[in-house]
């Protein structure tokens, strides 16, 4: 592999606090050096001129659905990771609600095999219970040894108190976090959007915010009983659940959470007249919850921005609202939305926005050598123009599916180059 020299860009590496003009040398798939301009000889290296651009660690998405094995008509590991590369992501953590469910070391290994054609690094997240049935724990040590970085039944909650407690204990022993899809499904049966007056007007059944916050509160009580336990709340969407995480953290618990771009950028109003591209789970919420997500991001309670990239085929989304599947794609719009809403509109520091997309998610799931440009770490880099405005076109997406509520949106900050383990995987 040829050396790659990314020259003269503004290097922002939140992990080390670096924000300065640097040349970055990638060699043998790793970061070899980051030095002031002109110090590294170009010699044999391929050179990318990054003057005027930001050079950051490749982005880390701890929540994506890549649909393989079993649902390659929605997405494959190859197409999903191509979308990731176009969005600046170089590490993606793949959820286990595949067909079959990823509850075995064999599937964990299959997902990471070179034959899958991944453009960027895939970290599998394995099922917390067999078949994600919520009854019998999977073998956490074996899954970890095969490469799984967490356990979850995402798409569904781990509902029973006893099984959740068992999961937290077994995961703590294996050194893995338990990721909870916090939805008390005893309170959301038949619901297809957020509970409230809008659901009433649209004639749809709505999920109360307490279906999320109640399960988070239950999980935090259980976490208290587990020495060394780590609970991570997936796609947190309500002010009440956020408050519970904030309080638990103050009390010293290892409780972390992620928020999606759609939950900080949109409200339930985006559903309009039953647009299924605005249907996902958890649903878009009221404006007060959206504001709380931004607040939690600004005050540091939120640990990561994660997309919940959930591709579905057009024929599945083109149904009555309550029959259409939950989920939207997100890998190619996440950075643009984060920069537009958090950096431009709310004045957040660029390095703080990038921390939520690099060092903090990498730390949350302990992805060693990811989300940083420290010498010796993976040669994962994104180069983007932070001030460029651009229009996202779903039809041009690398994802196999086009189910996004952001088609035609003007976003901030366009990706110019993505490098995964020293190889260029996207260039524009
Ligand atoms: O919107 C969602 N889509 N929420 C989930 O929990 C599952 C996911 C999917 O797999 O499509
Ligand atoms: Zn999910």
Topology record:
Layout: E1 4-13, E2 18-27, E3 30-35, E4 46-49, E5 54-57, E6 59-64, H1 77-86, E7 89-94, H2 105-112, E8 121-124, E9 126-127, H3 140-146, E10 151-152, H4 161-174, E11 178-180, E12 193-194, H5 197-202, E13 206-207, H6 209-224, E14 231-233, H7 239-250, E15 255-259, H8 261-265, H9 287-298, E16 304-305, H10 314-317, H11 334-345, H12 350-355, H13 359-364, E17 381-391, E18 410-420, E19 423-427
Parallel strand pairs: 1-4, 1-5, 6-7, 7-8, 9-10, 10-11, 11-14, 12-13, 14-15, 15-16
Antiparallel strand pairs: 1-2, 2-3, 5-17, 17-18, 18-19
Helix pairs in contact: 2-3, 4-6, 6-7
(4S)-2,6-dioxohexahydropyrimidine-4-carboxylic acid binds next to loops.
Q: Nutshell version of this structure?
A:
With 428 residues, this protein is α/β, with parallel strands linked by helices. Helices cover 28% and strands 23% of the residues.
């Amino acid at each position: 592999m040829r050396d790659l020299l990314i020259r003269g860009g503004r290097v922002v590496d939140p992990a080390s606090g670096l924000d300065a003009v640097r040349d970055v040398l990638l060699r043998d798939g790793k970061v070899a050096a980051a030095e002031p301009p002109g110090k590294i000889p170009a010699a044999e290296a391929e050179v990318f001129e990054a003057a005027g651009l930001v050079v950051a660690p490749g982005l880390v998405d701890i929540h994506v659905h890549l649909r393989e094995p079993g649902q390659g008509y929605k997405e494959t590991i190859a197409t999903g990771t191509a979308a990731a590369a176009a969005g600046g992501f170089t590490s993606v953590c793949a959820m286990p609600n595949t067909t079959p469910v990823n509850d075995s070391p064999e599937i964990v290994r299959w997902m990471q095999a070179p034959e899958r054609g991944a453009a960027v690094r895939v970290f599998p997240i394995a099922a917390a219970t067999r078949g994600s049935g919520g009854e019998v724990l999977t073998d956490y040590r074996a899954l970890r040894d095969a490469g799984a970085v967490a356990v979850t039944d995402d798409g569904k909650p781990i509902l029973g108190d006893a099984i959740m407690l068992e999961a937290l204990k077994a995961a703590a022993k294996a050194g893995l976090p338990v990721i909870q899809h916090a939805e008390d499904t005893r309170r959301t049966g038949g619901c297809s959007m957020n509970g409230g007056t809008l659901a009433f007007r649209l004639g749809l059944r709505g999920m109360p915010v307490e279906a999320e916050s109640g399960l988070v509160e239950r999980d935090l009580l259980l976490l208290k009983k587990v020495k060394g336990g780590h609970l991570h709340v997936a796609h947190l969407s309500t002010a009440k659940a956020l408050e519970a995480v904030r309080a638990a953290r103050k009390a010293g618990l290892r409780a972390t959470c992620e928020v999606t771009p759609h939950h900080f950028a949109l409200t339930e109003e985006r559903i309009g007249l039953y647009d299924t591209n605005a249907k996902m789970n958890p649903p878009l919420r009221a404006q007060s919850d959206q504001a709380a997500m931004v607040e939690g991001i600004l005050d540091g309670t939120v640990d990561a921005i994660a997309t919940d990239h959930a591709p579905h085929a057009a024929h599945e989304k083109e149904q009555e609202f309550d029959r259409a599947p939950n989920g939207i794609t997100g890998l190619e719009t996440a950075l643009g939305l984060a920069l537009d809403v958090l950096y431009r509109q709310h004045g957040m520091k660029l390095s703080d926005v990038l921390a939520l997309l690099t060092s903090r998610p990498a730390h949350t799931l302990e992805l060693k050598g990811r989300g940083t440009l420290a010498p010796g770490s993976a040669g994962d880099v994104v180069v983007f123009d932070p001030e460029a405005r651009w229009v996202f076109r779903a039809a041009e997406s690398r994802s196999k599916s086009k189910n996004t509520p952001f088609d035609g949106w003007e976003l901030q900050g366009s990706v110019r180059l993505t490098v995964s383990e020293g190889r260029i995987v996207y260039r524009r």
